[in-house]
Write a structure and sequence with these properties.
single chain, 283 residues, mainly alpha, Multidrug-efflux Transporter Regulator, Chain: A, Domain 2, two-stranded antiparallel sheet, 13 helices, 3% strand
């Protein structure tokens, strides 16, 4: 097939739509929004699409699942504006985000493994060396809260001061984590003070390890919510496995999208070389 026949064969909106189960109007809307290059028109005003437009549509639809509709549109508009580096920068951001998520998952697994190993030690010795409660809620507990703090094991309740000393952070840090959604302690009905149960302590310990690894609070909050929702150890392992599967699928989708974008760039180059010495990608 010649360059001209490959890039200039006329296609109708319905031809492009049929391949993807879309309506012809959706294809026209994509052109209007800049996701497809402008189509030529017949004397009677009908659009004339080509294989270039078909390739553009495939590239856009392949970008959407992993980059999102808005970013996929920005990538396509950048290509049509001749801003190839801008389009590649947007794609690079997507790969960077995927790498960050992979590193976060690895850090979560490592942190949970360390927490599990630490908790496998002598519980009695740990309980004996934990600091007692202080005089007020910002640094300890009083009244009913102090009574609950004398328990042991999974049923023991911690005050904000105890947990802060356990992690070697300030009570203000724990409150900041709570504001960010990392922690969700209950309140003692008698005093209104924060009460940290076993799951809250686990979340705080995990957040502490991830913060030391340089992870921002918003990412930690997302991770902790995932773990909090998972519940027990088996469910947590399944949740982390599901997270891994989603990251893998996202990486494969990026490869799929890159294939279609590369194909589209090739056709744009062919069309540009057939019409002028300096096409839109080199402007």
């Amino acid at each position: 097939m010649t360059v001209k026949s490959q890039t200039m064969t006329s296609l109708r909106p319905s031809d492009l739509a049929r391949e993807h189960g879309l309506s012809a109007q959706a294809v026209r809307n994509y052109e209007r929004d800049g996701f497809l290059p402008p189509a030529e028109r017949t004397d009677s005003g009908y659009r004339l699409y080509t294989e270039v437009h078909a390739a553009a549509l495939r590239a856009f639809l392949a970008l959407v699942p992993t980059y999102g509709h808005a970013t996929a549109g920005r990538i396509m508009r950048a290509l049509h504006d001749g801003a190839l580096d801008d389009a590649l920068t947007l794609i690079d951001h997507g790969h960077s985000g995927l790498l960050r998520d992979r590193e976060t998952l690895a850090a979560v697994r490592d942190a949970l493994g360390r927490l599990t190993a630490e908790r496998a030690g002598p519980t009695e010795a740990k309980e004996a060396t934990r600091p007692g409660p202080g005089p007020a809620e910002p640094s300890g507990a009083t009244g009913a809260t102090a009574a609950t703090a004398t328990g042991s094991g999974a049923h023991r309740a911690w005050t904000v001061g105890e947990l802060a000393r356990h992690l070697d952070v300030t009570p203000a840090t724990l409150r900041k984590w709570e504001e960010a959604g990392v922690l969700a302690p209950a309140r003692d009905p008698a005093t209104g003070y924060r009460v940290f149960r076993a799951d809250d302590v686990r979340d705080a310990e995990l957040a502490h390890l991830l913060r030391r690894g340089g992870h921002p609070l918003d990412h930690i909050a997302t991770v902790v919510r995932r773990i909090r929702t998972a519940g027990g150890a088996d469910a947590l392992a399944a949740s982390l496995g599901d997270w891994q599967s989603k990251l893998t699928a996202r990486g494969v989708a990026m490869l799929h999208a890159a294939t279609h974008v590369s194909r589209y760039l090739t056709l744009l180059e062919l069309r540009a070389s057939a019409t002028s010495p300096a096409g839109p990608l080199h402007a």
